[in-house]
C-alpha cells in the first residue's frame, strides 16, 4: 500500500469523477464524494485502513475537458496541496468531436490535449509527490469504431506523459476491455460513457491496484 | 468463489439492505439495487466475474423486522426461487425497544425473533441450497451500552441458527468492531445504524469473503 | 398519395413512437401526438393535405415489446377501427437481451417475435385495409456489432411478414444507414436508440415516402 | 439547394421562433433548437444533407418586437457571424396594439417597424451574404379583421425591404392562407398566433422551399 | 330584485363557469366559487343584500358539453334542490367542431344540443321555480366567422327553449357584442373563449340585470 | 362619471390592494391587476366604458405601511404620471401595534402617519389632478375593540387630509359597517383584514360610487 | 401528579389538537404528536417524569366537530383503550354558524352538541377511568361578541357534562381570558382560533395543572 | 423572576438553538423563533407574564462553532442591544473532531474555544447586564465515551468562564443526565445531538429555572 498516514488524495476529472459530488467542495459527510468510483475507492480505503486517516477529496466536474481543468487548476488542485493527485480527463475532449461535429469550438484536438495535460502535470509536480494518470475510455469493444479509435489515441498520450513525468499510469480502457469480452456495453452504460456501479467498480479496482491496495486487509 | 454460473442471489433485510432500491422489484438497470452494500457486492461480482452471469436481486425494505419478513416471505423470497439467499434482519426488532420504549407492540423480543427467523430458514431450506445469515449490528464500540448489548444477544441467536441449519454465517458486528478501533461511530453513521459508504464497504467485504470472492481476479 | 379523405391512421409501437404522447389516448390538441416522428408525419399531412381531413392517432407506449402489443391489441388497435395502421416494434425485444442479459424473462427471442407479430397482422387484416410495417433499428453503423446484428435479423422477419401479408414495408435501418455514412451515432442518439429530431425526420420521411406523399403539394 | 458545406444559419425572431429553445445559446444537443419550425428545418437539413454539416442556431426570444432585436443584434446576430440569417419579426409589434390598447409604449407602429428592420438588414448585410426575411402572420382568414389587416401591412413592409436589400422573401401569411381554406384557425392555434406542429410545418416548408431544398434527396 | 331570502342559486356550465372552483362542491370559504362571473355575482349579492342570506353554488366543469351535463344532472343539479338555476352551456359543443374537426365523436350538433338542453330544463322544472338560460358565446365581432355563426344558431336554440319553458333568458353574445364595438377580442380573451375579468364582468352584469339586481342598494 | 377618455388611474396600498398583482408592474394581461378590488374596479370600467380606454395600474405591495409608500413614491407614483391616484394605507401601521406589540420599530403611530400621508398627497398634487383617499379599515363591528378604535382614529386622519387637500374621500370602514349589520366578520375575512370577494366588492362599490360610475350603462 | 406508570393518554379534538400530527396514528418519533399543546404536554411529561413511561397519543383531526368524533369514536378512542382521555371539541361546531351562515347543514347547534358529547363520554366511561373535558374557546376578550357568546354557552355545556359524569374539567376560555387582559388577540392568533406557541402554552399549562403536574420535579 | 418589563432577550448558538427560525431575523409572528427550546421559553414567558412584554430574539444558526459566532457577534448580538443574552455553543466544535476526523481545519480545540468564548463574553459585558451561559451537551450517558468525555471538558470551560465573568450558568449536560437515567438516548435524539421536543423541554426548563421563572404564575 503506497499511501502513508494522514495523506491527502485529490481526484479531478469530468462527470465520471463528479457523480453528483458536493459543490463547491467534495469532501466529508453526507455522500459528499458522489456516487462513483471515487466513493468506492474512499470506502475501501477507510474500511480497510482506518488507522491511516487518509483524506479523500473529489474535484470532478461534469462536462469538463482539459481546458476546463486548466482554468481551475490553481484553485481546485494546487491550493488543495494534495499528497496524491489522480487525474482522469479527455472523454469530453473527444466526445464533442463526435456528438457535436459542427460546434468545433468545443472540440479539444489531440495536440492541445497533450500540451495542456502535460502543463498541468508539470505545475503539480512541484508540490505533489504522487500523481496518478488515468486514461479516458469509451465502453465500446470495437476498436475500429471511430470514437473508440480516437479515444485510444488520447489514452496513448496519457501513457506517454505518465512515462515521461514519472506518474503512476492506470489504463482504464484496458480494464473495461476485459469486462467487455463477456458483457455488452449497454449493460454497463447506455451511452457507452457514464457507467453504472459495475463500471465504477472496474475503475475503482484499477485505481486501487495501482496504489497497491491490500485486499486481504 | 462459491457462486456458480447463472445463479440467482437474493438479499433480504431492512433499511440497511434496502437503501432506496427500486420498488416493488429491486433488480436491473438504473441503480435498481439501491446504493448500499448490495450494490457494492453486485458491482464487484459483475466486474470480476462477468463470465458467470450472476443475477442479484434486492428485496430489503426499510423499517422491517423479522415479523415483516414473515409476512412477505412467500412472495419476496420463495417465489424468487433463489439459488443463494442472504438475510440480515434484527436491527429494528431491537431498536424499537430503545427509541420507542412505550410502544411495546412494535418490539420483537428475542424469543419471537429466534422462532420466526428459524422458521424462515426452514421454509427456504427446501428450495435454496445456499443461505447466508448476517447478524444485525449496532455501530457502538461500548459493549456495555444497553442497545449494543441486546444487539449482541440477537447476533448470538443468528449464529446459533446458522450453525444448526448449515448456513454461511457473517458476523457484521465483529467486522464493524475492528473498524471502530480506529474510527468514532459518528464518522460512519450519525445514528449508529445507517452507515455511509465506508460502513457499506465493511458489510460488502464481509459478505464477499464469506462467499470466497477472489479479489485478485 | 395513398391516403383517402377522412381516413384514420393509427401508429403503434414503443418509446420511439410514444415520445410523450397524451395518455390514454394520443390524439388531438396540445401536442397529444407526442414529439417524435408521428407528430412530424401528422404535421406534414395536415399542412399539405388539409382538404383530406386525415385523422392520426398515436398509440405507442414506452418500453413495449411485441408481447405488450399483443396484450393491448384489441383495445388500442382493433377498437380504433383504423383505415391505416403503422407498426414499429422490436427494439426492446432485442435490447433487453443486451442491456439486461440475466433477466431472461424480459427477452423476446426471434421465434416468439415472428409468431406474435404475424398474429397481430392477421388479426388486423380483417378490418384494416392498409398496414405499414416498419423495421426496428439500431443507430450503429457497424453491422458486426452484436446488437445491430440481432436487430437486422428482426428486421428481416418484419420484411418477410410484410411480403407474405401484403403490407407496406418500411426499412428504417436502411434509412438510418444512409445518414450514418456522414454522421456518427452519438450526434443522433446518445444511447443509439432514442433519436433526436434529425432521427425522427429520418423515420418520418421514410414513412411519408412509403405512402407516396407529394412533397411539392 | 442554396446552402453550402459548413455554412452557419442563424434564426432570430419572437416566440414563434423561440419555442422553448436553450438559453442563452440555442444550439446543439438535447432539443436546444426548441420545438418549432427551426427544429423542423434543422432536422430536415441534417437528415437530407448530412454531408453538408450545416450549423443551425436559434436566437428567437419570446415576446420580442423589432425594438428588442435592435437591442441585442450585435451580440445575438453580428457576433455569430452567420453565413445565412433568417428574420421573422413583427407579430408582437402589432399584437400589443390589439390586446393591450392602452399600453401604448408597448406598441411599435409601422414607421418605426420599417426603419428599425431596415437598419438591422443594413447592419448585417456587410458580413452576411444570405438574408431571409419572413413576414409576420396572423392565423385569421378574414382579411377585414382589424389585426389581420394591420399584419398584412407589416408584411408589405417586409416585402419591400426584401426587394430593396436583395433578401430572400418568405410570405408566411400567404402560406397560412392556403391552409386556412380548409382548416379553421382554432385547429392550428387557439390564440391565432402560436401554431401547433401543423402550423410550424407550414412555416418550415415555406422556408425550405425558399432555400431550394430538394425533398427527393 | 327577484331573489328571496334564504334562496339557493346554482350555476352550472363549462370552464367559463368553473374557473377553478372547489371540487367536488363549489361553495363556501376560500374562493370556492372560482374566479369567474359566478364569484362576481355572489360578491355583489352578498355585499348588497347581506340580509337575504342567498346561497350560491358553482357546479361548472371545464370542457363540458350538454352531454356531460346530462350525465351529472341528477347529482349536481336535482339533488341540490335549487330555488334558482342558471345554465350556460354550448361553447364546447360548437368549439370541438372547429378545433378538432376530425374527432367527430366529440361534436354535439344542434339537434342533439336542442333535445338534451330541453330535456334538462324539463327535468328541473318540477322542483326549481326559477331557471335562467344564458346563451353560449364567441368573443368574435365578425358574425360571418364560421364558428361565431354556428354559435349564434345555438344561441337561438337557447332563446327558443327559454321562451317555450318560461325561463329567464340572458343573451351573453349580445352583451359581448356591445363591448366588441370598442375593444378588439384579444384584449378580452386570447382564445376568444376564456374571458379575463372584463369579460366576466360582462357576464355578471348581464346576469344581475336579468334578476333585477338593484345597483344603488 | 368623473373619468375622462385615455386617463390613467393608479392604485397604491398594502396587501388588500396588492392581491397577488404582477411584479414589478401591475398592469396588463394575465390578471396582472391581482384578484382584489382593483381588478373588480377595472373590470367594471372596461366593460361599462370600453370607449374610454381607461388605463388602470396596481402598485399595492403586501405588508406596506405609509413609511414604505414614502420610500417608493417617486418610482411607483410620481413616475407613473397618473391622472387619477387612489391611496389606501394604514392597516399595517395599526395592526403591528396589536399583533407585534414588542417590536415597536414596526409601529407607525398616528402623528407620523398623518405627517407622511400628508406629505405624499402634497407631492402628488402637483402632477395629479384627481386623488382618492380611502380609509384603512378593520372588519370588526365592535367599535370599542382596541384595534378597531385605533383604526377609526387613523380613518379620521384620512378624512381630514382629504378635506384639506381637496381629495375625493372614501370611507371604507363605513361601507363595511353596513354589511356587518347582517354578516359576522368571519364570513368576510378570517383575520378581519384580508377580505374575500364579498369584501372586495364592498371596496370596489365604494370606490366606483365615489367616481360617479353609472351602473346602468 | 395523577398519572400512574405506563398509563396511556389519548387526546382527541379538532385542528387545535391536530397541529399537523402524523396520520393515521399520532404517536412516536419524528414529531408525530404535531406541534401544538399535545406536543408540549408530552414533552413536559417525558422530561419531568421519565420514570413513568407515559404513552401519549394524538387523535385530533382538523375541521372536526362533535359529529365527526362520533363517527370515528370506536376506532380512534375505544380501540385505543386509553387510561386517560382528553377531549376538546366544539370550535368548528360554533364557527361554521358564523363563517358559513348559509351552509346550515354544517352547523352543530347546542342541543345536538350536548347530546353527542354526552353520548361519547358515556361510551368511554366503561373502559376509561380518567376523562378530561376541555372547553372550546374563542380568543376574543369581548364577551358580547356574537361568536364568543355562543362559544361560552358551549363551554357551559362542557362544564355541566363534566360535573354530571365525573370528568376533570379544564376551562380553556378562562385561561385565555387571563392572558387577554394584557395581550390583544391578534398577537396570539390572527383568526382568533388557531393559536401560536404562546396560545398552545396556555392550553398545555391548563391541562398540566388539571392533572396536578409537579413543575418543580 | 429575574426579567424586568420590556426587556429584550437574545439567544445565540448552533442548530439546537436555530431549529428552523426565520432568517435573517428570528423574531415575531409565524413561528419565527423556530421549533426548539427558544420557542418553548418564549411561549411560557408570554403566557405566564403577558404583562411584562418580554421581547425574545433567536439568532441561532445551524452548524455554527464559536468561530462563527465571533464572525457575526457585532451584527447579531451587539447591535441587538439585548438586556439578556443566552449563549449555547460548542457542540459542533467537538463533533467535527469525531465525525470528520481528517478535516482538521473544521475542529475547534479547547484552547481556542476557551479564548474565543471568553472574548465574546467580555465584548458583550459592556452593554448587556445579564448573560446566561449554557454548556454544550451530548445525549450519551456513558461518560467514558470519547466524544462525551470531550464535551464534558468543554462544559467545564463554560462553567469557569461563567464564574469568572459573573454569568448565570446552565448545566445542560447535567439536565440531560438526569433524564438519561430512565430514557435511552435514541428516544430523545437519533444522532445524540438534535433533540426531539422532550429534549427541548429539558433545555427550556433548565433555562427557565435559571431565570427564576415562577411556574405557579
UniProtKB/TrEMBL annotation, chains A, B, C, D, E, F, G, H:
Gene3D superfamilies to which the protein is assigned, alphabetical: SGNH hydrolase
GO molecular function, one term: phosphatidylcholine lysophospholipase activity
Name of the protein: SGNH/GDSL hydrolase family protein
Residue span, SGNH hydrolase-type esterase domain: 11-202
PANTHER family: SGNH HYDROLASE-TYPE ESTERASE DOMAIN-CONTAINING PROTEIN, THIOESTERASE 1/PROTEASE 1/LYSOPHOSPHOLIPASE L1
Extent of the signal sequence: none
Organism whose genome encodes this protein: Gracilibacillus oryzae
Domain of life the protein comes from: Bacteria
Any coiled-coil regions, as ranges: none
Keywords associated with the record: Hydrolase
